[in-house]
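Exam revision sheet. Question 4 asks you to relate a sequence to its structure. Input first:
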Amino acid sequence: MTVYVSIIIPTLNEATTLNQTLQCLTTLDPPAQEILIVDGGSQDNTIALAEAATFTQTTLQILTSQQAGRSVQMNCGAKQATGEVLCFLHADTLVPPDLVTVIDKTLADPSVVCGGFISLMAGTDTTRWSISLHNYLKTYYAPLLFRPHLFLFKGLRLLFGDQVMFCRSQSFWNCGGFDPALPIMEEADLCRKLVQQGRIRLVNRVVQSSDRRVAKWGLLKANLIYLYVGFLWGIGVSANYLKQFYEDIR
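Answer key, C-alpha cells:
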C-alpha cells in the first residue's frame, strides 16, 4: 500500500514559478493524497493561479497564514495535513513523477526518519553545476564539520529548502516542527532535531530548483553568501542576524 503523502508549499508572491510547479505535480504517479498551498500574503497573482489548478486524484487546499515566513507557513500546512508523511516543497522546485514512490521506499526503512533529494539548480538558459555540486556536498560536510558526533553516530545530514525535505508527520510533531522564530535555515534546524529519532537520508534522485537568486546576485556573490551564512550558522550565530544577508529576491 502506497504511503499517504501531504505536499506543503509555502508561497509569497510566487506567480512566476507556481504554475509550473503545480503542473509538475499533476504528473505524479501515484498521486499525492493532498497538496496544501500556504500563502503568506501574496500581492501578485499567486492565489489566482493556485485556485485555477486542477487535480483529478489529489485534494488541493489553499490556506492563508496569519504571518509570513516559511517556518510559520509550513507549520500551518502541517497542522492541516492528513497524510502520514509530510513533504515540504518550494514553489520554484520541480519534482520527478515518482516522488511518492521514492518517499515510500525511503521511509520503508524504520531507521530513516527523514529524507531529501539532490537539488539541481537551473534557469532557462543555464544549469548551475558548481553551486549544485556544492549544495550536494554541503549536505555531508556541514554536519561533519559542525556536528561531527551526530554525523558519525546518528546519521545527521543537513537538508535545505530546495532539497524537498520529507518526514513522517508523527516524527515532525514529536520534535516540535519548524522553529517559527527562524527566518532562514529552518530545514537544517529541523534536521538537527529529527536526527534524535533516526537517520536522515539524501536519496540518489534529482529535483530541479530555480536559479533566480544566483541570477540576481551573480555566481561569485551567491557562493560567498551561501558559504558565509552556512559557516556562521554552523558556529551558532543567530539565524535572525544572518537573515540580513539573505535578501528577498521575488
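Marking note for examiners. The longest helix spans residues 129-146.
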